[in-house]
């Protein structure tokens, strides 16, 4: 029996083979076969029909477990699942298997003796492992029918009396012998018999092949003499004694070496052979090689164990689907969606939200067609009836022929990630609105602040021009201080306005040629460059994704900083860029007064100045604007410096397109004042 309580197909076909040995008529053969298949619980009914080529039809001759309405003659031309399967089996002389029905041709030595039809109510229908044993038993049944037919034809209906009766008995015995010999020689099972001294008195061809010995070399030998290891021989001797004592058959399983195939696993049965007095006179045995079946069972068990371990270890939903996704075999919902331990065909309506069912079906069809992984985000009905989101991924399990046998899938609960994405979209939209309002406010505020500053500066100039001769030196200095303060305040307001405008979004970026950016920045600084006799050189610069206006402002502020803090000598500034991994690293190097290394992080803060205004002009906002621009471009900015040894500013910008702009410069891009 299998682990499910049902017989395996090998057990059923073995029982059918053994039952055919004493059969004496074709009718008895057919009926006995049907009853054995139906009694196995693997099949809901069995049906044998005789093929009539003149009518192109199959006529029922025996059945078991089948309703009368299904006993109709099958015409090979009819358009029905039974008709198509029967037509295929008759035409090809090979087994034809549908979802829940199989038709086995009964063929022996190229003669068709009919067909055996089997049906099952198992949810998964017929398994691939059933094909070979069912095809073999079809040959065995046909052989038995052929021998029974031959026996019937040999009998003479015209002869009567004792002599005729004796002849008929002899013919019958001879026919039975031929039938027996044909069956035991054609079966792949091992068939043998022992006497009560544990000596072999019969061995069929399959057993002799396993031993790699002839019949004469083997018969009359004990188990040990035929090469069985001591433990193996002792085990069977004990079992033979038990059969003799109890007069009941026993069954076992054993593994040992085959002469050609190596270690194999066998299922065997020892049965008593009784004499006329009812005593056991011999032991008959049959052994079947179940290595492939055991390996398949072990592989299945390991697969089940891995699946169970995966289920237990994972917080995800785990499921198994039929090859065409028509049935969900199993699902562990992890309290996210309802579990199911039974096959269900309404899983789509049960679990998938109606809005997403079409998308799910399209993705499934494509995965089946290409035998590739199924992946999709979709909505699901949760345990509590609410709507949830999941990311589902399933991979196809293929057999040796590349046919999909099932799908194993996992689904992650993403109700939280989707909610986070929704809230993030709302937040981004709110931020955009807020930034837009802040820009409008900053513009309005700067206008409102600069207007009174311009008025103060203008009236102070009028006061100086009109009453300058009447004012003493100290009063004139006070006026100059006030005008200078108003001008500096106006510059600071403008700088703060520029700082507030640095608010760039990635979707607004476009390819920007940094050669062009550098040229525009130099042009904006033309007066300062000429006044200080500055020299600015550059290597070839790349094209990056960004906001061109803000990148010009970035270069302008860094170049202006290098010119401002150059010291007494004319400034020498060099601009370069190199690609590192997935970003561009820019550098702007000068030979100016330098910075204390401990202060290089502080210089990028708003209003953070390292020198007094009477030493070096500036608002203290320029480098803060640089940092804001680089950050908006998803980059980093920093400085490396030593006092009196110059400063190098570095900043990075992600490489989105990997392109380098060709400026055509032949000498490294030297550009002087």
From TrEMBL:
Keyword Ligase among record annotations: no
Residues of the PAS domain: 176-247
Renumbered residue ranges of the record's region Disordered: 149-169, 654-673
Keyword Repressor annotated: no
One example GO MF annotation: phosphorelay sensor kinase activity
Listed EC numbers: 2.7.13.3
Gene3D superfamilies assigned: 1.10.287.130, 3.30.450.40, Histidine kinase-like ATPase, C-terminal domain, PAS domain
Coiled-coil region: 410-444
Recorded catalytic activity of this chain's protein: ATP + protein L-histidine = ADP + protein N-phospho-L-histidine
Pfam families: HATPase_c (PF02518), HisKA (PF00512), PAS_3 (PF08447), PAS_4 (PF08448)
All copies of domain PAC, residue ranges: 250-302, 374-426
Keyword field: Coiled coil, Kinase, Phosphoprotein, Plasmid, Transferase
Domain Histidine kinase: start-end pairs: 444-657
Taxonomy, superkingdom: Archaea
Name the record gives this protein: histidine kinase
